[in-house]
Amino acid sequence: MTDRWESIQRVVITALGIDHDRREAFVREQCGDDLEMVSDVLSLLAKDEATSVLDGSLADIWMPPTRSYVGRQLGHYEVKEKLASGGMGVVYKAVDKKLDRTIALKFLHPHLGFDPKARARLIREARTASSLDHPNICTVYEVGETSEDDVFIAMAFYDGSTLDKMLSSGLLDQAAVLDIVSQVSTGLSHAHAAGISHRDIKPANLLVTESGLVKILDFGIAKPESGTTTLTGTVGTLAYMSPEQLDGIPPDPRTDIWSLGVVFFEMLAGER
After folding, report:
1. In this structure, are residues 57 and 38 in contact, taking their beta carbons and an 8 Å threshold?
2. I need a surface site. Which of 127, 169, 217, 262 has the fewest CB within 10 A?
3. What is the DSSP letter of 110?
4. Cβ atoms of residues 152 and 139 within 8 Å
5. Per-residue confidence of the chain (272 residues) as pLDDT tens digits?
6. Alpha-carbon distances of 223 from 41, 87, 220, 227, rounded to whole Å
């Protein structure tokens, strides 16, 4: 299931960026003689053309749902409610009973959580992300496992809204746009100085708190292995990827600058 889903995911991600009249030919070329895969990809595209596989509903159509943890006690975490679901997993609101604070728990989908390489990469990257102490970067507390061997990340919970939801309600004024871009730039500069590239800057990964503080989300989630030279293993969202990242060239900090530029344009123009 893992290899097949990853193959389908890569084809769908790329096809979403191709003109409608060329998509079927592209899919058939990529899938070759695997007619079942052709059917699966075309079905997913037909059900949800506007959503990136890594962002949400296309992944939910194909993958079995992650078990619900609402009401469960996981160590010193008491899970209260489900906040969001996406291609990478499910996010819950929880209470840290030991420190009496509200947190967020992000669980990986089973096709990632039971992959030894994905688990090792998650732990390695989460450790790196937790070292980034900056007001514009989401705080990661720890990586844990449940009795069912599901992997989760415990991170800070913030009251606010992601930028994609804000943009769906209309354009922002220029002062707000400049403030958001400035804060994201400051957070990225701190990460880049520490040798870390985010690789998936997009409105859904930028949260604006009720006080106006911008938080960069999803540091530490699976990213491409160094030395990748093809689309295989590419992680990100097509509409915001730099050309080099899409071509499989190992990204450096400049790929985040490209992606932020796309977000900047989208905030000002209302379109990508």
Report:
1. no
2. 169
3. H
4. no
5. 446 676 777 787 777 767 677 788 888 888 887 777 787 788 777 765 444 444 444 544 444 445 788 999 999 999 999 988 765 668 899 999 999 999 999 887 655 556 666 667 667 667 777 888 999 999 989 888 888 878 888 999 999 999 999 998 888 999 999 999 999 999 999 999 988 888 889 998 999 999 999 999 887 543 434 433 333 345 567 788 888 887 777 778 999 999 999 999 999 999 88
6. 23, 14, 8, 12
Q: How far apart are CA 129 and CA 140, in angstroms?
A: 7
Contact between 114 and 99 under an 8 Å Cβ cutoff? The reply is no
How far apart CA 52 and CA 204 sit, in angstroms, is 11
pTM: 0.71
CA distance 163 to 45: 25
The residues assigned a catalytic role are: 200
Residues with Cβ within 8 Å of 113's Cβ and at least 6 positions away in sequence, in order, are 89, 107, 119, 149, 150, 151
Q: Encoding tokens for residue 268? A: 């000002």
Rounded-to-integer distance, Cα 210 and Cα 156, Å: 15
Give the whole-angstrom CA distance, residue 151 versus residue 248: 27
Q: How many CB atoms lie within 10 A of CB 158?
A: 18
DSSP for residue 137? B
